[in-house]
Design a protein that fits this description.
Blueprint lengths: L1 E7 L1 H5 L3 H10 L3 E8 L3 H7 L9 H8 L4 E8 L2 H9 L12 H5 L8 E3 L3 H11 L9
Antiparallel strand pairs: 1-3, 1-4, 2-3
The structure holds adenosine-3',5'-cyclic-monophosphate.
Length: 139
């Protein structure tokens, strides 16, 4: 079993899709190990998405990610990172496979409902961004 981080983004939280997305991920076989609502400030969003700092969409992405609450969660499964990437679908919902989270719930390439870690190394870093080790000890 391994862990990954998912974030239900402000578009999906604002349109009350959080529960449906969590239910979808549980149906896909993920176990929720930790879950909390929070709102990122500008510094946190810039740091979280630091790898995209030079991209033309960076400022817009930071504005979007700070525009409202998000639901951050740690998910557990065999091969959690690649399985969650598969379950959420392509960045652009127009290109996402049927029945993926983004095909079902995303609005656009930026307002795309969910984030998922892209490697085990980044999953560990991103989990640490939202949760402490003690949050994960209970199960
Ligand atoms: P995410 O998987 O969280 O990783 C980076 C985010 O940047 C991505 O989802 C989108 O929300 C956003 N993003 C990626 N590419 C673009 C783009 N071309 N235009 C606008 N936003 C983008």
């Amino acid at each position: 079993m391994s862990l990954t981080l998912a974030i239900v983004k402000p578009d999906a939280v604002a349109s009350k899709k959080t529960g449906a997305i969590v239910a979808h991920l549980e149906r896909e076989g993920f176990t929720i190990r930790a879950l909390r609502m929070t709102r990122l400030n500008r510094g946190q969003a810039e740091s979280f998405y630091g790898v995209h700092r030079e991209r033309p969409f960076f400022q817009s992405l930071v504005s979007f990610m700070t525009s409202g609450p998000v639901a951050a969660m740690v998910l557990e499964a065999d091969d959690a990172v690649p399985r969650l990437r598969e379950a959420i679908g392509a960045t652009d919902p127009a290109e996402a496979a049927p029945d993926t989270v983004r095909a079902l719930f995303a609005e656009s390439k930026e307002r795309n409902a969910i984030h998922a870690s892209d490697s085990d190394e980044n999953a560990e870093i991103e989990i640490g961004f939202f949760f402490s080790t003690s949050d994960l000890l209970a199960l």
